[in-house]
Amino acid sequence: xxxxxxxxxxxxxxxxxxxxxxxxxxxxxxxxxxxxxxxxxxxxxxxxxxxxxxxxxxxxxxxxxxxxxxx
Length: 71
Description:
Layout: H1 2-9, E1 16-18, H2 19-28, H3 35-45, E2 52-54, H4 55-69
Antiparallel strand pairs: 1-2
């Protein structure tokens, strides 16, 4: 799944990924989101505006949104 793909990109084990790698991972999963939509999603989770996101927090956030929408 998505977590495995993001973790696979993180060769060093820092648990963070760049926007470029984030886009690649989602595009490789046949995401229908545009580059702009992916950028907005990435920026939402890049709280420190450093160009990196913690992919574990990203997955947790997405799951929380999914659970909320499907209550």
